[in-house]
Amino acid sequence: MPDRVALHESAPPTASVELAAPYRRALVIANPIAGRGLGETVGRDLLAGLSKLDVATELYLTKARGDARARLRDMREPVDLVVSVGGDGSLREVLDGLMDPEIPVAMVPLGTANVLALDLGLERNVDRALEIIRGRRVQRLDVAHVNGHLSFLVTGVGFDGLVVREVERARNGPITKWSYSRAILRALRGYRAPKLKVELDGEVQDGRFGLVLIANIIHYGGSLKLSSSRRLDDGRFEAYLFREADRNDLLALALRGFVSELPGGKCTMRPCVRAKITCDDGPVPYQVDGDFRGETPVEFELLRRQYRILIP
Q1: Residues 45-59 pLDDT 10s
Q2: What is the DSSP letter of 48?
Q3: Is 209 in the same domain as 65?
Q4: Domain span at 266
Q5: Which ranges constitute the DSSP H helices of 171-293?
Q6: What is the largest CA-CA distance in the chain?
Q7: Low-confidence residues of the chain: pLDDT under 70
Q8: Closest listed residue to residue 177, CA positions, set 217, 219, 221, 215
Q9: Which of 86, 112, 135 is the C-terminal boundary of a domain?
Q10: Nearest alpha carbon to residue 196 among 185, 184, 208
Q11: Quick one: 174 and 290 in the same domain?
């Protein structure tokens, strides 16, 4: 059983922190174009730094979507540390590819939003990452399946699914914050809030909803704040249900998320381990952890396994 240590101030509220075993072999998986082309440089700096720590290390540079997952699934030599260099998408591929969720994962956040890194107080800095690796402090992380896709951040059904679909349609190279700003403006044209039917843990929720988020994070989209009382490892996600989600309601949501946090106003929150979201008026777009995944119906289910993330 891993050792228990005192809670660090950068860790999530009331989270339990463990110590990973000493490392012998590591695999660094880097997206070379992440961070405006810094990914490869950061990966090589980590390779050098880990070698100085007497950790036998391999650097793998991804070439396309799915490479990180495939590399881990095809891994022949066992490792006891994986380092993800890139954004939230790179980290999700790493987690999805890990055959053994007990292997600790470190990260250097080089993406656009870096949502989990914001929650955990991680920095875009190789020296700091090596310090965290040396410390071996581990935070467990709940994950879920959403229509078969791995999720550890947030699933959004409604307007944000529409926005992410617009981002994907217009994508030509790396995604930036400006990509999302333009997508929001396009999504607002002719926007009408859906009427979503929501079932949580087998219980149909009263009424219809214009927007639904099912999250395990605080910094939604890197900017808005969800409930700071959430825990990464408590065996549940939080469902945020918005009764209304027309343009004025979306503006109010954004303002509340910027200046304080959700839930509040027309937003309520309920923890859940399973959810089903449908719409009788036609299909509604949804996103999972920042990737457009299709249209309703959406089925969410917490997985019994947890992953292990290295933290300050």
Answers
A1: 999 999 999 999 999
A2: H
A3: no
A4: 149-304
A5: 177-188, 247-259
A6: 60
A7: 1-15, 172-178, 222
A8: 221
A9: 135
A10: 208
A11: yes
| Four-residue CA torsion sign, 231, 232, 235, 241 | positive
Give the integer Cα–Cα distance in Å for 255 and 247: 12
Nearest to 212 by CA among 166, 280, 270: 270
Supply 110's token pair: 């080089």
Tell how many helices (H) and how many strands (E) occur in the chain.
9, 20
Verify that 131 and 248 share a domain, yes or no: no
| Residue length of the chain | 312
Amino acid 93 reads E
Quick check: 114 and 87 in contact, CB under 8 A?
yes
Cβ neighbors of 209 (< 8 A, separation 6 or more) are 158, 195, 196, 198, 241, 242, 243, 245
The model's pTM = 0.90
CA distances from 91 to 68, 102, 239 (A): 9, 15, 23
Q: What is the crossing angle of helices 126-135 and 39-52, to 10°?
A: 40
Does a structural domain hold residue 166? yes
Q: Which residues of 222-251 are buried (b: 16+ CB within 10 A; e: fewer)?
A: bebbbbeebbbbbebbbbbbbebbeeebbe
Give pLDDT, residue 214: 98
Give CA–CA dist 278/286, Å, rounded. 11
- Whether residue 78 is found in the same domain as residue 154: no
* Measured distance CA(43)–CA(254) in Å, rounded: 36
Any bridge partners for residue 272, and if so which?
A: 237
* φ, ψ (nearest 5 deg) of residue 65: -60, 140
Q: Which residue has the tokens 């992953």?
A: 307
Residue type, 39: G
Q: What count of Cα atoms within 13 Å lies in the side-chain half-sphere of residue 128?
A: 11
Quote the pLDDT of residue 308: 97
